[in-house]
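Researcher: We're teaching a course module on how sequence relates to structure. For the next exercise, students receive a sequence and then see the predicted structure as tokens, so they can try to spot secondary structure elements on their own. Here is the exercise chain.
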Amino acid sequence: MKKIKYNIRYAMPDDATEIMDILHAAFQSYVAELNGVDVELHALTETVDDILADIKDNAVFVAVSDKKKLLGTIRVKALTDDLAYIYRFGVLPEIKNIGVGSRLMAAACDYCSERGFKAIALHTNARFYTLARYYYGKRFFVHSTDDSKGYIRALFIKELSDDRNYDITPAEKE
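Model: And here is the predicted structure for the students to work with:
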């Protein structure tokens, strides 16, 4: 695949529609990995207004090509003073595996480190082996699993501090 030039930046309100399009494309492949489980993913039903609220209230990063096209996105919110939560992480399917997601993840982790969070949490489909391996490679570990959303979700944690005195309970509710 041809190398793509891109930068990571904070999302702006004008990016909301394109962010929604990226997530719809990315999460369609996520649904395919559920192997016929009928589930409604919030990432596929959120509106532009939902995205605008996240841009206003949380940290939303985007990867932007030199042609000004959005390639991927990731969101981070504070659950407590010690715990951040990553969500709505997606890259356009046609450019997967060229490093865009890894740079977005690095931006999110750097953001969390700079703000003094002790840990980062996220959920993913426990049966989506590619994603599970990806998160392990980024130094996340599985804390627990549940099936509250209609499929087996793994709660992954990445510790950013040697101080393991943080409460994971708020992430379990996401």
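Model: If you want an answer key for the exercise: Residues 6-172 form a domain with the Aminopeptidase fold (CATH 3.40.630.30). Residues 86 and 148 are 18 Å apart (CA to CA).
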